Each structure stands twice: as C-alpha cells, then as structure tokens.
Amino acid sequence: MSKKEVPIVIVTGYLGSGKTTLMQNILKQEKRKIALIVNDMGSINIDASILHKTGNQVAQIEMVEMQNGCICCTLRNEFIAQIERLSADPTIEAIFVEASGISEPSSIAGAFLNYEEMTEDTRVYLKSVVSVVDVDRIYKEFLHDLVSDEEAEDGDVINLIMDQIEFCNLMILNKTDLLTEAQLEEVKTELRNLQQEAEMIPCVNGEVDLDVMLNREDFDFEEVEAYSAVQRALNHCEHDDEKACVDEYGISSFVFEERKPFNREAFNRLVDNYPEVLIRSKGYIWFSDDWKHIQLFEQAGRNASITELSEWVSAWPEEELAPVIADYPDIKDDWDETYGDRCNQLVFIGKGYEKAEIVKLLNACLEVA
After folding, report:
1. 27 in the same domain as 100
2. Are residues 69 and 105 in the same domain?
3. In this structure, is the dihedral angle defined by the CA atoms of residues 95, 100, 104 and 110, taken in order, positive or negative?
4. What span, in angstroms and rounded, lies between the C-alpha atoms of 89 and 93?
C-alpha cells in the first residue's frame, strides 16, 4: 500500500461567497505545486476562465474544468476519475477542489472517502473541507432578514448556505471589511451556534495563507458530521424528554416525532409566523392532502422552505411493495398499521424557548381526525 501523501482540500460556499478569489490568491503564493479542479454548474465554466487570467502561475499547475453538472451528484464519477488521474502525477503536492456553489459538501466528501477506502494504492487523502462564508450576506439575510440585491433567492438558499457551514472543518469568513467589528462578532456568535468546532479565519478578498489550509489535523468525516447542531440533536436528544437538551453554549435542541400528518394550511401559517427563538429546524414531514410524498422542511433564521422529495415506501403500489418487504423485512419494524412508514421527524434548535410551547404549536398544525 502506497503512502498517502497528497492532501485534498474541498472548497465550498454559495455563489458569490468568494471561492474563486480564494483560489486566485492560493495560486499566487507559489508555495507548492497544486492541482485544481473547478466545478461550475453552467455549460461555460466562468470560474475556470477567471482563474486562467491569474497569470503564468496557472500554467505551472494542473487545472481541470468540470462543468454542466455538480460533483456531488451528476459529475461524481468524473470527479473521482480526475482525482485518480491527478494522483498518479508524482510532482503534485496538493489538490484543491472548488465545488459548485450549490454543492452539498457532505456528498462530495462521502464520495471521495468511499473512493479512498476502496482504492488501496491511492496517494491522496482528504485534508479539509473549507466553507467560504460571505459574512455580509449572513448578517443581512440570516441574522436580520434583509434582502440587499435583485437576485436574492428564497429560503432554500440560506438553508443550503447553512448546510455548507455545518459540514466543514474550516470556515473562511470572507468580506469582513463590509461589517463593523460589532457586526462581525454577531455573525461569529450565530455561526458558532450552528457549528461549534470548525476554526474560523476572517479575511478580506479571500486572502488566506495556503499553509493554513494544509498544516492542520486531517479531516474526520464522523467528527465533522457531529459538529452540526442538527446532528448533535439527533444523536443526543431523547424524544420523550420534557425539556430540550442544552449544551455548553446555551443552545437547546429537541426532536419532534409524530405519525399523524400536518394540515398544510396550518403548517404554512406556522412558518409565516415562525418563533424567532428558533435558530435552525430541519426534518421530514408529510401533509394530509398528500399521502404519497416526503417533504423536507428547513429553517434557518427568518428563512424557511418546504421541498417535495421522494415517495414514502408505503405509498408504492402493492406489486412493488410486497417484494421489497419480502427482501427487507426490517422495514416493518417501524411500520404503523394506519400510516405505514409515514412520520414527521423534525429537529429544533434555538435559545430561550420552552419546548412545551413549540410542541403545542406543532400539535395545533396536525390534521384533526
């Protein structure tokens, strides 16, 4: 088995957060020979074209452009193939991956770690998952619910940003020059509520020393996943506790589970008047007017979204359901005679709230038989 000696750094962050500027600055430092994989969702890779203009330094590295898809899903196999090809070059000292702005970092890291486990002779290993955070946007749209530009999207965007913040072991807090010191401290406090372990590095225009991202402890998937406030709640909260779990930061969390469906109109009214004491909520729900689909509910700050996902297993036609249950009888272990596998399961995280009051609001949204 060959020695794993080439670190991989995955750089995530939403559109406009400053990922490409960070990459430009890394290329200028000329400390190590690096390979760069740039992923962009468009058919023309704008980020890669910007990086090409950085200067002669780009010609000294290997740069791979991956476009018209995302490396966490549609381009996953191509992404792994490029990693494999680059790792065969003995001169490459590190590989940086600039993920698409809408990538889910846990999916990218999971795909790579699976490859790493399955490939004994690989020289590469996952060093860091970096989240580039636009602190100005977080301050305006997450903390204070202000929309500052024409292309500001709805709640699902801020939820994606939160996912990228929660799953990382290094946060680059970019654009700090746009905030006062007090505003920046407010952002740091709220980010720490969501992600309590990852190191935070404030910067302007993505100016971060290359060594900061490479001279650190290796990435640990399970440990980083546990950083997430949502994951901590799922791991440590007992569903039947009268009080929510409280950590050392004063953040409390609990899990709500209920088989009965929500009334869609009632639940939407709750979302429109969502308790401000709740920092983050996430989970799967279902509505009385739709026994077929799983809905993903996500809330971050004053932003919330409901997204229709896949189908409940119990909604499958009998001819499809029967053989699946025959092959996987464990499915029936958590099966309700009336609702099958349908269940609302939500994690709530916040400060200064009473669990009983939140549960009362949720119960009021349930469909009355």
Report:
1. yes
2. yes
3. negative
4. 9
Say how far residue 78 (Cα) sits from the centre of its chain.
21
For β-strands 290-300 and 303-311, DSSP reports them as antiparallel
| Beta partners for residue 96, in sequence order | 9, 36
Total length of the chain = 369
* Tokens representing residue 111 in the block: 């795909």
Could you tell me if residue 299 is left (phi over 0), alpha (psi between -120 and 50 degrees) or otherwise beta? beta
Quote the CA–CA distance of 297 and 304 in Å, as a whole number. 7
Kindly give the pairing relationship between strand 303-311 and strand 344-350. unpaired
Last residue of a domain, one of 169, 198, 227: 227
Angle (CA) 265-304-189 rounded to 5° is 145
pTM reported for the whole predicted model: 0.62
Q: Are residues 66 and 131 in the same domain?
A: yes
Distances (CA, A) of 17 to 135, 154, 190, 200, 219: 8, 17, 18, 15, 22
Q: Is residue 143 part of a domain?
A: yes
Is residue 107 domain-resident?
A: yes
- Which of helix, strand or coil describes residue 310? strand
Q: pLDDT tens digits, residue range 307-356? A: 887 888 888 888 888 887 787 777 777 888 899 889 998 888 777 788 89
Backbone region of residue 283 per phi and psi (left: phi > 0; alpha: psi in -120 to 50; beta: other values): left
Residue 369 lies in a domain: no
Domain ranges, residue 193: 6-227
Model confidence over 260-314: pLDDT tens digits?
999 999 999 999 888 888 877 888 899 999 999 988 888 876 677 888 878 888 8
Is residue 134 a contact partner of residue 203, using CB atoms and an 8 Å limit?
Answer: no
DSSP structure string for 42-84: SSS-HHHHHHHTT-HHHHTSEEEEEESS-TTTTTHHHHHHHHH
List beta partners, residue 246: 252
Do 215 and 287 lie in a common domain? no
